[in-house]
Amino acid sequence: MVTKTRKTKETDISVSLNLYGSGESKIDTGVGFLDHMLESFAKHSLIDLDVKCTGDTHIDDHHSVEDVGIVIGSLLSEVLYPAKGIERFSNSSVVMDEACVECDLDLSNRPFLVYDLDVYGKVGNFDTELVEEYFRAFILNASISAHIIQKRGKNKHHIIEAAFKAVAVSIRRAIEKNDRIGIPSTKDML
Question: What's the pLDDT score for residue 188?
Fold first, then answer.
């Protein structure tokens, strides 16, 4: 496990991560819906993940959600790069009842996000606009190029959870070891 901390006037965060784990997690962000999504992410990526966040949720959940994405993403970047002996590219489509979300990604060390989920409103007391904030913070700080696209669905909870699972499965597949590839780039560096 590697650990990273980040403390600002708005949040105090500690994240530990084991890239080739078994999907175990201990998540306490102070934002229940985010906890649920990160537990699902850990389970389906097979990344062991411990997250503790104390944030200014008395204002709203924005700072906690975004900052957790920043810390998890930057820690993932630290353990991924320079990339060697992994698949690098992957994709997955995850179905949750009527919803289906696809994630195509490249562990390129060049961050880019295409996000197309129709989930605006609330799930419980969680502002669903924060899903995009989380993924932007996570993807950009992890230096991943990712396209997260809703193929169909109506239930916001299902769509969001399918997105977290699709990202998780795509990362699991992209970090799959493949020694025949060596450095997975014609540039000879990632």
Answer: 86
**Residue 52 confidence (pLDDT):** 98
Q: Which CATH number, 3.30.230.40, 3.30.70.3280, 3.40.50.880, 3.50.50.60, labels domain 2-174?
A: 3.30.230.40
* Residue 190 binned pLDDT confidence (cut-offs 50, 70, 90): confident
pLDDT tens-digit series, residues 6-35: 999 999 999 999 999 999 999 999 999 999
Task: List phi, psi (to 5°) of 113.
Answer: -130, 130
Torsions phi, psi for 158 (to 5 deg): -60, -45
Cβ contacts of residue 161 below 8 Å, gap of 6+?
A: 36, 37, 40, 96
Closest by Cα among 34, 40, 37 to 13: 34
Select from 166, 32, 20 the least CA-distant residue to 79: 20
Q: Where are the chain's structural domains?
A: 2-174
